[in-house]
Write a structure and sequence with these properties.
Strand content: 35-45%
Number of strands: 11
Largest sheet: 6 strands, antiparallel
Number of helices: 4
Shape: elongated
Radius of gyration: 22 Å
Helix content: 10-25%
Length: 220
């Protein structure tokens, strides 16, 4: 009886270890969002600090919490990496993925960018323990599952009276702008809730992210 119990425990440990290894390998794919439809991936608004100097407030993920970054220039730019599957992966129903990579400032005129100090860039990509898809490249016929890995960028003029929403489409980023609500010191306060916060995806996605975050912090 004890031998059978030990055998069961041993196989459970082996299965758990294999599951952890699989999750660690596929973890990078779960930091890439799906882009089969047009969906919001980021929201930005800006505060002016000086000539060609701004503080960018950027929300990603569920668009509920903002991080701030200092950028230079008169335009903002957001970069993302896209992955398109092919062949067997497509037959399995794997959906193409995207990942936000970088926020930076830029100048609308090239001579202005050359004459002034370089615009600053900020990394938005999460830390990965194993990044199987590092680097942008076209895989083409030589790739088994991946058709191509490519980058897409979107940029617009900075207007502190506007709020910008960035969307991912089938193969690119697009941006739309709306008036930024003006602050009011009189009358009742109105809070508009137009999105759900706190959603983190399915069980596998959450487990993969948790394992990747642990490994990135403690095993590198």
């Amino acid at each position: 009886m004890w031998r059978k119990l030990l055998r069961v425990i041993k196989w459970l440990l082996v299965a758990g270890l294999l599951a952890a290894i699989v999750l660690l390998i596929v973890a990078p794919l779960f930091v890439y969002g799906r882009f089969n439809a047009e969906q919001p991936v980021a929201e930005l608004w800006f505060e002016r600090r000086g000539p060609y100097e701004y503080t960018a407030h950027v929300a990603t993920g569920d668009l509920c919490s903002y991080r701030t970054y200092d950028i230079s220039g008169d335009q903002w730019q957001l970069d993302a990496r896209f992955i398109k599957w092919k062949g067997f992966a497509t037959l399995l129903g794997l959906e193409s993925r995207y990942r936000l990579d970088r926020l930076s400032g830029r100048y609308s005129e090239a001579r202005g960018q050359n004459a002034r100090k370089p615009p600053r860039a900020h990394d938005l990509a999460p830390a990965l323990f194993i990044d199987l898809l590092a680097g942008g490249r076209t895989v083409g016929a030589s790739g088994f599952l991946v058709d191509t890995i490519f980058g897409s960028s979107v940029y617009l003029d900075i207007d502190t009276t506007r709020r910008y929403r960035v969307y991912k489409t089938e193969d690119a980023l697009i941006a739309r702008e709306v008036p930024r609500p003006a602050a009011s010191t009189t009358g009742p306060m109105t809070i508009v809730i137009d999105k759900a916060c706190g959603a983190r995806g399915g069980i596998v996605a959450r487990a993969a992210r948790t394992l990747n975050d642990f490994a990135a912090r403690h095993l590198k």
